[in-house]
Design goal:
Length: 81
């Protein structure tokens, strides 16, 4: 087997990703533009909740607005909203 074959992506071997529920608890008004853009990128508007995959990119975005959001584990079968 060639060395590159060992590193090919195999979609059937992808692990199930845990989900997290992100709830906006404070308004983004008065926050810097970068933080408002992060809230928008997370899909948060009007202090609602969204369910996102638990990965490094989402965790980094949460870290930027950690004073405006609350994070909990999403229950199984949760959907956006």
């Amino acid at each position: 087997m060639p060395p590159s074959a060992a590193f090919r992506w195999k979609p059937w071997e992808v692990a199930v990703v845990d989900q997290i529920r992100i709830t906006q608890i404070k308004s983004g008004l008065g926050a810097p533009r970068k933080q408002r853009a992060t809230l928008e990128a997370l899909g948060l508007r009007h202090q609602r909740s969204v369910v996102k995959p638990d990965n490094g990119a989402i965790r980094g975005m949460i870290f930027q607005v950690r004073h405006l959001v609350d994070v909990t584990e999403a229950e199984e079968g949760g959907n956006n909203g």
